[in-house]
Amino acid sequence: MNRAERLSAILDLLAESGRLQVEDIVERLGVSPATARRDLDALAEQQLLGRTRGGAVSHSVAYDLPVRYKNQQRRDAKRAIARAASALVPRGAIVGLSGGTTATAIADELMSRGDVMAHADDPGLTVVTNAVNIAMQLALRPQIKTVVVGGVLHPRSYELVGPHAEETLARINLDLAFIGANALHPDHGATTHDEREAAVNAAMARRAERAVLVVDSAKLDKRVFAVVGPERLFDTVITDGDATADQRARLADRGYDVIVAAD
After folding, report:
1. Residue 72 in this model has a pLDDT that exceeds 60
2. Is 206 within 8 Å of 171 (Cβ atoms)?
3. Distance (Å, rounded) from C-alpha 240 to C-alpha 208?
4. What does the angle CA 66 – CA 194 – CA 153 come to, to the nearest 5 degrees?
5. Is beta strand 55-57 parallel, antiparallel or unpaired with respect to 19-21?
6. What is the pLDDT of residues 131-166, one digit of tens each?
7. Gap between the Cα atoms of 244 and 187, Å rounded
8. What one-character DSSP code corresponds to residue 171?
């Protein structure tokens, strides 16, 4: 487990009870007491927790993610994709994040980066999102400028959808956009179950200099109801190591730059 993964794991442990001791981290993560204390100090400097004698407490404004996002399937694959996505993002970039569990994992990864969370006069990142749960996560990170598009809240996905969201996105520019999908097929492109989500995802991708699909391998070679924009809207796909060589080759033949996230 690298440092970024440890910091994320510590925040997950802290969210379970609101209070954490150094001994708990040592036992659960298998690190030394000195490492646990350094990690807690780093998170405290980023204003992600409050330090106590021998441990830490969560901030009183801590968020609570919806159940859908806590119990995500293929969690390891999505974390690997999130690390690969974060590696594409330079400090100070303007990043679009759609809704979904993979985009939520990317938000977690970005928030654990030391260069992004370092105190500075300018934002470490600007993140534009239509996902309410991601906005709630980012609200605790003053080093990240968070822009939330308007719209109607979709009760199943916690995404803001509709014409107002699309109009807001039409007035901004993004360096990168990371867009999740329910399925990706080389012949049919990226698709989602909901046409309103598909429309907003396409609007976000159109505003990005580089539009990136983030889909785990279980979603490859499938299609569902609503197409996310035209075929050439996305130039990059990030997936996990379970994608077969044939699946990667067929996506590459369609013009995608395929990035396979390391475990």
Report:
1. no
2. no
3. 23
4. 45
5. antiparallel
6. 999 999 898 888 999 999 999 998 878 899 999 999
7. 17
8. T
**Two structure tokens written together for 23:** 């001994």
Cα 58 to Cα 50: distance, rounded to the nearest angstrom: 6
Residue 250 φ/ψ, nearest 5 degrees:
-70, -35
Strand partners, 191: 183, 227
Distance (Å, whole) CA 144 – CA 105: 16
With beta carbons less than 8 A apart as the criterion, state whether 94 and 126 touch. yes
Are the CB atoms for 228 and 238 separated by under 8 Å?
A: no
| 8 Å CB contact between 63 and 132 | no
Q: Which residues, 6 or more positions from 258, have their beta carbon under 8 angstroms from its beta carbon?
A: 236, 237, 239, 243, 248, 251, 252
Beta strand spans in 155-235 (E): 159-161, 174-180, 183-185, 189-192, 208-214, 226-227
Does this model's pTM top 0.85? My answer is no
Tokens coding 226: 């609503």
The two structure tokens encoding residue 183: 């399925």
pLDDT band at 49 (very low <50, low <70, confident <90, very high): confident
* Of 176, 12, 32, the residue nearest 94 (C-alpha): 176
pLDDT digit string (tens) for 174-228? Answer: 999 999 999 999 999 999 999 999 999 999 999 999 999 999 999 999 999 999 9
Q: How far apart, in whole angstroms, are the C-alpha atoms of residue 46 and residue 72? A: 26
Structure-block tokens of residue 161: 């959808």
Using CA atoms, how far apart are residues 76 and 103, in angstroms rounded to an integer? 14
Q: What CA–CA distance (Å, rounded) separates 68 from 157?
A: 8
